[in-house]
Design a protein that fits this description.
By secondary structure, the chain is α+β, with helices and mostly antiparallel strands. It has three helices and four strands. It binds zinc ion. Zinc ion binds near residues 32, 34, 35, 63 and 64. This is Probable zinc-binding domain-containing protein.
Length: about 100
């Protein structure tokens, strides 16, 4: 195991049947696919993703933290919008505009 690495707990991983399971986590550098900024997928973040959030062990971080936050916020706003649309009263003439099947 490389110095400074964190031991992986297989029992907490999402089931994968892999011949090459993750033995440990160490910081993995990457380049953000959205803004091209270099970032580090830290060993602590990896442990959280794979053991707490149960991401598949093949999942890689492809965006930097600020871009991930932006994506999360966009998805949250979309969910909120869809909930608002589902909860709104139908338009009084909606039956007129609905396609006849
Ligand atoms: Zn980015």
């Amino acid at each position: 195991m490389p110095p400074g690495a964190i031991v992986a707990d297989w029992s907490k991983h999402h089931p994968h049947n892999s011949y090459s399971p993750l033995f440990w986590y160490e910081d993995r550098p990457g380049v953000c696919k959205t803004c091209s900024a270099p970032f580090v997928f830290t060993k602590e973040a990896q442990r959280h993703c794979y053991e707490v959030l149960k991401f598949p062990i093949y999942a890689e971080a492809v965006r930097c933290a600020p871009c991930r936050a932006k994506v999360r916020e966009t998805k949250r706003a979309q969910r909120e919008h869809m909930a608002e649309m589902a909860a709104r009263k139908p338009h009084p003439h909606e039956a007129f505009f609905r396609k006849r099947s």
